[in-house]
């Protein structure tokens, strides 16, 4: 009898602890809007519920890749430019995050988007002939977001089928995750799951949700992300773009110091100079006009259409100085630009077209990432796109 009593007492304490932790974490994962928005962390990207909880009418979802991590000391980087502005960019993306991941991310969070607009910053490097690589996609795959996508009733079966088939192909190297994905398909899409499969998915989904909440709470604490303060409000004032233009020119000129690629001199000396001869003409045969990535991007745009979210594509240019050196033909670069222009027009997406900025000095920090003027141009296009919604 004593053993039974002890067991029941332990069980009650355990359940009480779990419930208490659940309530505590739910009440402590509303963060400072700008700190949370600019926080680049996979814990955040995988926590769709927490992203939704931290969005308001001034938030705009901005999806991209590794550019968010670069140039944070520039006055034109969004971390600095919008620090005291009412506009709050919810940034999602790091290296290897591409169109397919972002389609799933959007599907998972769109319900909480008060500003029904989304920005997708396109890197030309996504559109290599092989598209997103399987190991890269697997490393960025969020099961919780994927389940949320499957459960989103606004998304058509055809779109879900495409994401499902593409994901199963790219997850072939991760057998454990692939087996669970197949269960999710049976439970949420086909409706032919067994009782045991339904119970397994039900339990595992709850486990993923709780794990995500606890992980983002712990990670935010470690990163010293401040809690939400309703009294702290940004200025509803458009940035002085001409002032920032002058700053970008000065900062770029100082950092580049006249190197032939107009990128950071530190990057030039450490990364480019040692490989200049090796890279010369190395991309003469590369193709960026035909890639599975275009179909993934089309899926993203179709998902926007089905959910009623208005997209803006930010078409980043190739670094003309660098890609001339590596031998990628201008004709091939132009074909990429025309492909994106055609897709945006076909789906009614707004397009921030920077195809004519290939040779703009200080547009790039390095071979591919946005620099002083690049970030300024992109931020201005995002601000104007987001502001249109506020005036309606």
Give descriptors for this structure.
Rossmann fold, 5-stranded parallel β-sheet, 392 residues, alpha/beta, 7% strand
Question: How would you describe the overall organization of this protein?
Answer:
This protein has 392 residues and is an alpha/beta fold. The protein has one domain (31-390): 3-Layer(aba) Sandwich (Rossmann fold), CATH 3.40.50.1110. It is 55% helix and 7% strand. The chain contains 18 helices and five strands. It has helices spanning 2-27, 33-38, 42-45, 48-53, 78-81, 99-109, 134-139, 143-151, 157-170, 175-190, 195-222, 241-256, 265-272, 276-279, 292-307, 320-326, 330-346, 372-390; strands at residues 59-63, 88-92, 117-122, 310-315, 350-353. Strands 2-1-3-4-5 form a five-stranded parallel sheet, sandwiched between helices. Helix 5 links the parallel strand 1 and strand 2. Helix 1 packs across helix 11 and helix 8 (143-151) packs parallel to helix 10 (175-190). The termini are far apart.
Q: How many domains make up the coordinates?
A: 1
Radius of gyration: 23 Å
Q: What is the H/E string?
A: HHHHEHEHEHHHHHHHHHEHHEH
Portion in strands: 5-15%
CATH topology: Rossmann fold
**Broad CATH class:** Alpha Beta
Low-confidence stretches: 6-24
Largest sheet: 5 strands, parallel
């Amino acid at each position: 009898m004593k053993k039974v009593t002890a067991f029941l007492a332990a069980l009650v304490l355990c359940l009480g602890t779990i419930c208490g932790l659940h309530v505590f974490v739910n009440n402590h994962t509303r963060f400072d809007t700008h700190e949370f928005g600019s926080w680049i962390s996979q814990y955040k990207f995988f926590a769709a519920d927490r992203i939704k909880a931290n969005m308001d009418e001034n938030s705009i979802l901005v999806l991209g890749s590794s550019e968010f991590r670069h140039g944070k000391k520039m006055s034109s980087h969004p971390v600095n430019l919008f620090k005291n502005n009412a506009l709050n960019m919810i940034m999602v993306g790091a290296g290897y995050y591409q169109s397919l991941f972002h389609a799933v991310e959007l599907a998972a969070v769109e319900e909480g988007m008060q500003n029904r607009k989304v920005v997708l910053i396109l890197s030309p490097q996504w559109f290599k002939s092989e598209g997103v690589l399987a190991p890269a996609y697997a490393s960025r795959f969020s099961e919780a977001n994927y389940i949320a996508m499957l459960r989103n009733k606004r998304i058509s079966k055809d779109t879900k089928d495409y994401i499902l088939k593409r994901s199963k192909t790219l997850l072939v190297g991760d057998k454990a995750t692939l087996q669970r994905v197949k269960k999710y398909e049976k439970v949420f899409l086909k409706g032919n799951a067994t009782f045991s499969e339904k119970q397994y998915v039900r339990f595992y989904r709850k486990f993923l949700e709780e794990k995500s909440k606890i992980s983002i709470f712990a990670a935010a604490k470690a990163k010293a992300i401040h809690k939400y303060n309703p009294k702290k409000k940004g200025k509803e004032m458009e940035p002085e773009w001409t002032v920032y233009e002058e700053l970008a020119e000065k900062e770029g000129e100082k950092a580049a110091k006249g190197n032939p690629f107009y990128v950071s001199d530190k990057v030039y000396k450490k990364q480019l100079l040692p490989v200049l001869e090796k890279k010369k003409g190395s991309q003469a045969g590369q193709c960026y006009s035909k890639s599975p990535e275009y179909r993934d991007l089309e899926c993203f745009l179709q998902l926007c259409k089905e959910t009623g979210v208005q997209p803006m594509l930010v078409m980043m240019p190739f670094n003309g100085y660098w890609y001339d050196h590596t031998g990628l033909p201008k004709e091939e670069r132009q074909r990429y630009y025309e492909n994106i222009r055609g897709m945006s027009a076909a789906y009614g997406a707004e397009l921030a077209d920077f195809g004519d900025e290939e040779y703009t000095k200080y547009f790039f920090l390095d071979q591919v990432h946005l620099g002083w003027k690049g970030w300024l141009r992109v931020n201005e296009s995002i601000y104007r796109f987001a502001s249109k919604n506020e005036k309606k």
